[in-house]
Amino acid sequence: MNILIVGASGDVGTLVTPFLKQKHALRVYDIKAPADETLAYWQGDVTDFDNLRRALEGMDLLFYMAMNLQRGDPLAMEHSSFDVNVKGVYLAFKAAHEVGITHAVHCSTMSVYDGALDVRYFFDEEMMPDARGTYGFTKRLGEEVCRNAWNRYGISVNSLRMCHPVAREKWLEHARLSVPSIPTDAEDVARLMLAAMEYRNGFQAFLTSGDYENKFMNMGKAKRLLGWEPLARPVK
Fold first, then answer.
1. Per CATH, the architecture of 2-226 is what?
2. Residues ≥6 apart with Cβ < 8 Å to 176
3. For 107-128, what is the HEC assignment?
């Protein structure tokens, strides 16, 4: 498929695009160029509707990966979080609809839940997101924009509540046998994304992490509908 990935020049995009480009033709839409110079690049801001629409022409799927993880002036960060995590998502779906795209993948986060992730059990996706901080709250709103894209435009969307994607070396450095851990190996994240590109059934949210024993969260939905579960295992 021809896929426009919005925000793929960031940390997560840099981790997963080496795997994704083996399966699909990628076009990166970002304010900065990706580190991988072999990727097709379209410079643009997520709030520029006309540019988004042009970038989406000829694409088969929208992948919204932008997350706004920058640090800086608190008020400026709040403005930016709403722009990237809410407004940009809305405009991207509107543009996708206008060019005839009917399926999308959205990078959400387990930060849609308030507090530390290792102090309560996340039993399924119906557990109400309750984040109060700007980042988690705006990602919650972004999921609602995705739900609206299905209700309004008929664009099916898989919203992936991801958890600390890291390179394999870093994952192995910290993972320990018999010790539950939630960071997710980059190759597992890429496999998750590839599966989400194929599954089409309205709006769906998925709990995901590297917690392969499901000690912190029940990832049964991802296994059942996407055929996905984390495969990375500690070696010590």
1. 3-Layer(aba) Sandwich (3.40)
2. 234, 236
3. EEEHHHCCCCCCCCCECCCCCC
For tokens 């608190």, name the residue: 74
Q: Rg (Cα) of the chain, in Å, rounded?
A: 17
pTM attached to this predicted model: 0.96
**What contacts 34, CB < 8 A, 6 or more positions away?**
8, 9, 13, 14, 17, 28, 41
| Each residue's pLDDT tens digit, 190-202 | 999 999 999 999 9
Q: Which two tokens stand for residue 33?
A: 């160029």
So where are the chain's domains? 2-226
Specify whether the CB–CB gap between 212 and 232 falls below 8 A.
yes
Give phi and psi for 68, each to the nearest 5.
55, 70
Cα→Cα distances 167→6, 197, 209, Å: 21, 22, 14
- E-strand ranges in 65-174 read 103-109, 156-162, 165-166
pLDDT digits (tens, 9 = 90+) for 106-125: 999 999 999 999 889 999 99
Report d(CA 214, CA 226) in Å as an integer: 16
**Other beta carbons less than 10 A from residue 34's beta carbon:** 19
